Amino acid sequence: MTADTASFGDVVAARHRRGELVVQPRMGFCDPALMRQGLLATRAARAVTVGTITLDSYTRTGNHDAVRRALAVGTNLNGYPIVDRGPAATAALLRGVLSPAFPVQVRHGSADPRRIVSALLASGLHATEGGPVSYCLPYSRLPLRVAVDNWRRGCEMLAAARGPGREPHLETFGGCMMGQLCPPAMLVALSLLEGMFFWQHGLRCISFSYAQQTHAGQDREAIAALHKLIGRYVPAARTHVVVYTYMGMYPRTPGGASRLLAESARLASQSGASRLIVKTVAEAHRLPTIEENVAALETASAAARDAGWSGEAADIGEAADTGVYVQAEALVRNVLALDDDIGRALIAAFSRGYLDVPFCLHPDNRGMTRGYLDSGGRLHWAGIGALPIADLVDRPAEGRMTSARLLTALRFMERKFDGQAAMAEPVAATG
Amino acid sequence: MTRGRTPAAVVTSVFSDSHSWNLVYLELLLSELGWRVTNLGPCTPDERIVTECLTSRPDLVVISSLNGHGVMDGITLIGALRSRPELLTTPVVIGGNLDVKGGGSQAEARLLAAGFDAVFAGTGQLAAFRSFIRSIAAGRAAEEASIS
After folding, report:
1. Which of A66, A139, A429 lies at the smallest CB-CB distance from B21?
2. pLDDT digits 0-9 by tens, A198-232
3. Interface residue A66 vs chain B (CB under 8 A)
4. Given A61, A138, A428, which is nearest B15 (Cβ)?
5. How many beta-carbon pairs under 8 angstroms link A with B?
6. Structure ipTM
7. Can you give the pTM of this predicted structure?
8. Distance of CA A19 to CAs A48, A49, A244, A270, A299, Å?
């Protein structure tokens, strides 16, 4: 390890041992100077932070011609184009930013991470995130089998960068699939399975994501289930759980946005998670500024401190057990029985509908499952398709999904936290 | 054209955009308004959209994008669609969060100039979108009546 680098997982683990929740932005800027400024502001925030470089959508989709055209005419991309800026420029912007206490993770959303992994390693970084399922099904049109192969190679490249004092880190995005309306058992199962895939391809330091959904009690149960499954299925890995602040349609008022952020920080700290990916008050309107990101980090950090700390992973005894663990475990066990190679098992599971993400439009997702929100905000299965959990789920005699019902469900948290009924109707929902 | 044929719409995002809920919503909404919908999903390459339109000759193409690249990607896409003589007059609309600044009339003007029939930029556009859909359907009905 050189003096200015730190292993992402170790830094988070050290903070966790001290009872501190690490908070992290999604920040990404096209301009290297602004990206550097954003990282320095993240580091200087009155919060326990790690840094983020989020890449632009063209780099995510491997459309480097479009990146170069945009850069040539000075168009502002929606993130940092790490491949086309080149390692020298990225290393330069990181100089004096990386420190033993401040590692930086590259966030991207790509179903083919190979050039991104190569670029981040060449720039002196070794932490990133994603997964063969979570960055393919909702975020790409590549066939799942191609994404699995790309991610296998990406994992191998990252794992090969292991050196003295340098432990590459990879985070699953599987706990965030589609952002909302996916019953937690599926999120937990996918997060766990992607982490097992990373382990099988050489990663030893892995974080497992879970996105805050629509009911705090159900989320606590889900995170407890995730911790328990990690202990059971990936016991030798160095692991932590990362919670994402709600990823669906976000409150439009500053007060509502801050309240939802604070609730996610309480969820993370009280459920034994180690890290939180925040959202900002600007989320419902546009890409946030550096100042808005810093404010979000400080709000979340303060809320976590005030919430009190559960250094231990909350066990299911504390959270009411509504069956998230047994459903997730059944999904995982069923996939693992299909093939010793987890990548092949995932492909087989999706093709047979043993894994099936509600409302996901990808051609390799069967699309036979549906989720719905009850009046209290708990997520349930409305349809399970071929999922092997028929004996574990009570299904309602639920009415057909309509555009109005969908919008009501998508806006549940926005309305709850804004504390008022509909404001302006959007053309489109986020997710 | 058979009288009373169910109007057909293609719903899609653009190549760089991974958002799905907007497309799920639009599919449901258009279905309820009596349209047959082909939902191409997120991250659809321009060529795939052009091919689909040439094959199915939809009565409407709805592009929805939220990632802030919609102006750039939309202009490229509409160029690809309008370069095909068969698609010169196909109604094509775009909506969502179309640039990184949060909307703006300049962006809308550029998209209209590039060949879109309507632009629904930013939030609060759902009523306008519904009216537009009804006007398209009414226009089709009138056209069919005059032909038959």
Report:
1. A429
2. 999 999 999 999 999 999 999 999 999 999 999 99
3. yes
4. A61
5. 121
6. 0.87
7. 0.91
8. 11, 14, 19, 11, 17
